[in-house]
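Data card: per-record layout.
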Amino acid sequence: MLIADDRGQLVFFNEAAEEVVGRSFAEIGEMPMEEFSASFAPRTADSVPVPRERLATRIALEERRAAHEQIRITSRDGVEREVSVTAFPLFAHADEFVGIVAIFWRES
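The structure for this 108-residue chain is written out next.
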């Protein structure tokens, strides 16, 4: 699981995510989600790059709606992985967007 704030800044991911990410949050630290996502070279099962605007995390952040995807990534440890990602917006109140949460897991 990861959390990003309303500006799209990665602020946390849990220990269980380290296996997919390939590094710990302590090693990576806070960074823009766009930079974080791009570092994995997300692509379809056919190895076609996934446009930034189609990433579940971007949809949750920009469109403020839930999204799901299955993609291939190259983790920060250099291992290629198939992952599923479900991301959704977080609201403190109905009209107060505070960020997103994304839950992701390995498919293989």
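Known properties of this structure: The mean pLDDT is 94. DSSP finds four helices and six strands in the chain.

See the next section for split statistics.
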